[in-house]
Amino acid sequence: MSRPTPLSGFPEWLPAERIVEQQVLDRLRHTFELWGYSSLETRAVEPMDQLLRKGEIDKEVYVLRRLQADPDDAGDSGLALHYDLTVPFARYVLERSGHLQFPLKRYQIQKCWRGERPQEGRYREFTQADIDVVGAGELPFHYETELPLVVFDALSGLLDVGLPPVKMHVNNRKVSQGFFRSLGFEDLAGVLRLVDKLDKIGPARVCEALVAELGATDAQAKAVLEFASITAEDGSVADRVRALGGSDPLLDEGLEELVRVVEAARQAAPGMLIADLKIARGLDYYTGTVYETSLVGHEDLGSVCSGGRYDNLASSGSDVYPGVGISVGVTRLLSRVFSQKLVTASRSVPTAVLVAVASEETRALSDAVAADLRLRGIATEVAPTATKYGKQIRHADRRGIPFVWFPSADDDGEPVHEVRDIRSGEQVPADPQGWEPPADDLRPRIVQA
Amino acid sequence: MSRPTPLSGFPEWLPAERIVEQQVLDRLRHTFELWGYSSLETRAVEPMDQLLRKGEIDKEVYVLRRLQADPDDAGDSGLALHYDLTVPFARYVLERSGHLQFPLKRYQIQKCWRGERPQEGRYREFTQADIDVVGAGELPFHYETELPLVVFDALSGLLDVGLPPVKMHVNNRKVSQGFFRSLGFEDLAGVLRLVDKLDKIGPARVCEALVAELGATDAQAKAVLEFASITAEDGSVADRVRALGGSDPLLDEGLEELVRVVEAARQAAPGMLIADLKIARGLDYYTGTVYETSLVGHEDLGSVCSGGRYDNLASSGSDVYPGVGISVGVTRLLSRVFSQKLVTASRSVPTAVLVAVASEETRALSDAVAADLRLRGIATEVAPTATKYGKQIRHADRRGIPFVWFPSADDDGEPVHEVRDIRSGEQVPADPQGWEPPADDLRPRIVQA
């Protein structure tokens, strides 16, 4: 076999990077559970018709085919890999609703796949960490204010692992659609789609497109751009929209909701959330609050955390399960952390102690020491070969293992043990059934790179 | 959308089952790290040619295709989902060898996909938990004795969550091949393949096939069957093989290795490992010790934990990375635990406390209590709606949340808090900044169903 080369768009971490990823995922999980969100996983595949009715990324879907499909067994035909965790969760809720308690708060940390053109922050395989709340029939609005607070709590727990601070940009579909309707537009989704291109093509070309594609007057186009330029970190956002004129019941409802979200965040997490009326979100299914999040100082990376309220995603006949969710782009975050070497792990292995081996004949003695240490929760491995001690110490050093243990015996055959901190070189007698490493050395830590 | 139905072969757990799965995975991870194994993940996809050269399951591979593939961008053509974690790990080692330290001890817990006909214990999507050790150029034999001990340590940590005990059946390819060669067979892989069918078709038909397909004499066929019937829990296995006659250097080498594995396990984990010479393992790449594991009392489930030594899986030109690994079939284990209701979770949510809401106007008071409790690591949620307290208590009860918190104020507006253990009905005054639940109630526990 020739030496393989990496597949573009399918990132794989080295052991030290994986330790950082694990600690990030552990902290996200811890916070989500603190807020009462239950873990769920869904299968990686969905029927294609499910995936193709949800948004604009149809052609990026990966379809599955069994190499030699059995015509008698079509149970797995027409399947494709999921590209997010919202659509599969909505399907799961419908399928298992009789076995679930509502409102259902769940988090879901899994890989997703999209055949996008790879670049930093855009991968073909990537890990998402989603939280959603779904109600049966109805879902109280206050979950739209809770979700940003959960995310801020979770991401604040990552600041000390080197993650830059975030800023969440929030809008409400009712505000945009209500305002556009008050201006006289009929194709509200069309206006939203053009506003969504503001960052990419700039206001001048959006203005042209509003006129050319949607038949807007200059005044209408100008009002849309003024509206989309509004940002505010408090309830004043409503006054600024009302100052543009225009009146619509949907606009009023949306503004009241938007103010509640902004004000709740301003009290609980000052400076972390801003109302930003150009936020549109590509996906069709959002019906209320929409969220996007930038990494401060790394805005080029795109949104690291997005979501919104969806009223009609999970519905079957008269059974409707409205929901709201936010998805953290874990791989996108980590790719920046690793490419800019913001942090690393203090060692590349879980091991705190390497037990040296004097000779292959006495390996059992070293194994016994390792067993004693493991009983007290100290991650321990035994040297692979009974080479010179200098080589065994280098084995530990190259992996960042802080301690090397030397089992021995005195002239009477009684065991004599010493342990060396290979960073300081200090070597002291130690009892395998009592010695403990400093708490800081017990597990790998995340440190500045 | 019509109500979806489950896809056969793609199991999805309910929230309480997922809690059991998480605790099982956490314990496996804990043990693997205690023994110094580093976590790694590989991408879900491999180039098809990689997957098709490894074994007998070609036709079960799921091939990927982008819905609208871009002819300018063929970077993701010819990919398929991995069906195990050994082949991807071998590829990863070759690809990243310059960045890795050898011997490399890694564990890997991920989903795999095979288009098998679904039945209990056989799924199209399933989670495997693998440990492997890979060396550069060479790998000391003692890792073949270590791996079963790691697995026993890991699985023993699951006994108190209701997992039945296991028995590992071990053989060595060198023993089988050396013995078959000493009998005069040339197609050693052919004999192995027929021996592998013993459990399925029985000794009489294996005997017939040895004669008909491989031209064996009756005496040769009888010797193969006698050999394959040998089992032993100690070093006597070597004597019993030698008593059959036959001599071959490979046989001698294999017997010495097999005895070392059996004796190491007999000392460290008595009764958990048995030499069983009919064990063959389907995959071609094993070259030494091979492992299979049955769940005691559930032998019909098949092996829940399999693996072996592979000398040539990861090699590129003169660079060879011999390895040994064992894979725990987590989904297969859990499917039995759930289908026979061996255990469940003490509640279906992480939440320890539900904070009641007296009225929507005072929801902020309840949110503040929840924030205080979360600061001390107590998983807390706030009631979704300010319904009657009886309904809020039922909300907690249906999820198994043990405590409901009632924030209130006295006649002077001073906050007055009470917390109720809804199992006993006992309600006591409590301070949101000081109260702690009993340690046993802090997190969901695994309990007898």
Describe this structure in words.
The structure is a homodimer. In chain A, the strands form four sheets. The first copy, chain A, has a nine-stranded mixed beta sheet. A five-stranded mixed beta sheet of chain A has the order 15-14-16-17-18, sandwiched between helices. Chain A has a two-stranded antiparallel ribbon with strand order 2-4. Chain A folds into two domains: about 15-345, Bira Bifunctional Protein, Domain 2 (BirA Bifunctional Protein, domain 2, 2-Layer Sandwich); about 355-449, Anticodon-binding domain (Rossmann fold, 3-Layer(aba) Sandwich), CATH 3.40.50.800. In chain A, helix 4 runs parallel beside helix 10 (about 250-270), helix 5 packs antiparallel against helix 10 and helix 6 (about 190-195) runs antiparallel to helix 7. The first copy, chain A, is an alpha+beta fold and about 450 residues long. Chain A is built from 14 helices and 19 strands. Strand 3 of chain A pairs antiparallel with strand 3 of chain B, so a sheet runs across the interface. Chains A, B: Homodimer. Chains A, B: It catalyses: tRNA(His) + L-histidine + ATP = L-histidyl-tRNA(His) + AMP + diphosphate + H(+). Chains A, B: Keywords: Aminoacyl-tRNA synthetase, ATP-binding, Cytoplasm, Ligase, Nucleotide-binding, Protein biosynthesis.
Overview in brief:
Two copies of one chain form a homodimer. With 449 residues, chain A is an alpha+beta fold.
